[in-house]
Amino acid sequence: MSKRAVAGTDGPFATDPLDRTAVAAVGLITLFVVALATAQVTAAKVIALPLPFGLPVVGPEITLPGAALAYALTFLASDCYAELYGRRATQVVVNVAFLANFLVLALVWSTLAAPGIDPEVAAAFDTALGPATNVVAGSLLAYLVSQNWDVFVFHAIRDRTGRSMLWLRNIASTATSQALDTAIFVGVAFFAAPTLLGVGDPLPPAVLLSLGLGQYLLKLAIAVLDTPIVYLVVGAVRRE
């Protein structure tokens, strides 16, 4: 047996089962994957959040997919992971998780395709979990572009600031990547896919703008509010 194989059996917890670095790595990857899987199966529900006052273009409420909060957690997890473990490790997590999206879809589709004992329950599952082609296409493309952009911007700023100004790279990377994510998802799911693939009717430009801007404002607010959490996680792991 090779030395590499023997070493591999020890794992990251061989020296200390409560090592903060190893526990944090597993915890952040778990949070990322769980949030991503949750976002995939909750994207079909569209929710409306009332605002205390109307906003130009957006109006009196923000309309967004139910996956918005879960998906926002993926950026929190990836930014913490990027700060602690570096660019290449984070890109591996992001792109392996992208492939895991297809496993989630395959498992959901196989469950929907299997015959159900109760037709009403089966129909409810189809309605709630049946992923629309336009939503799947938009979410997968948006994920692939925005998550890799998030990692790129985060480390482009870190290369210039070192460990200082974590708040800047957290907010800047998430704000720009969420802008890309929103534009791609809304544009593909509600305009390009309906136009090119004939799945549903494309939304008018005014509605697309309102939908996209409302989502982005909420995502930007989450990016600002989760900055203290990023500091807490990174500080707890690095504490001597």
Task: Describe this protein's structure.
With 240 residues, the chain is mainly α. 75% of the residues lie in helices and 7% in strands. The protein has helices at 3-10, 20-42, 68-85, 87-113, 119-129, 133-161, 166-197, 205-225, 227-238, and strands at 46-55, 59-65. Strands 1-2 form a two-stranded antiparallel sheet. A hairpin with a 3-residue loop joins strand 1 (46-55) and strand 2 (59-65). Helix 4 runs antiparallel to helix 6. The longest helix has 32 residues, at 166-197. It is globular. Mean pLDDT is 86; it is low at 1-6.
What order do the helices and strands follow?
A: HHEEHHHHHHH
Number of helices: 9
Give the overall pLDDT as a whole number. Answer: 86
N→C terminal distance: 36 Å
Low-confidence stretches: 1-6
Proportion of beta-strand residues? 5-15%
Structural class: mainly alpha
Calculate Rg over CA atoms.
Answer: 20 Å
Helical content (DSSP H or I, runs of 4+): over 70%
Overall geometry comes to: globular
Give the spatial strand order of the biggest sheet. 1-2
Total number of strands: 2
